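Attaching the record inline, Q. Sequence:
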Amino acid sequence: MKRFRAYGLQLVIAFVLLTYTSVYAQIAKSAPQEPKTKLEAFETQTGTVMIKGYQDIGSVSGLGTVSVECMEFTDAATGRRQMGIVIDVKASGRLEREGRSFIDYDEIDPLLKGIDYISKVTSASTKLGNFEAIYKTKGDFSVTTFSGSSGKVEAAIKAGYIGGQQHTFL
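Structure, as predicted:
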């Protein structure tokens, strides 16, 4: 019986190692994510001289920090330009994690209108007990208003692709 347990344990360890190696190989071979915005596509270009202009617009701090930066890329060879904004969300706490979203210039006006609209949504907008109103951009940036536990309307901002961080303002 002891011999059977020893072989069983060896089989389990071998299976775990093989599974781990297989999963790790799949993760390592996965293709990079395609750019979702024109601004991000410009930033990832290779084989050409790219001129990047940027300026901080501002930031808000609370349970973390939300920073907004305006950005312009120019392809030196063709003169083509792409403009927009970049929003970085940095969560504070035990694990300081960051998320980043690119927003093309032509998405800025609809984003502002969307934020204006969802900031006016209240619990009267639905017959149910709670609500959420969300506006999302192509670059994985979202703003959400929702019914908070205190009965007041709260807001959350999320930026980034993988493990995007959420920053909540009351």
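The two ends are 62 Å apart (CA to CA). The mean pLDDT is 79.

More tomorrow.
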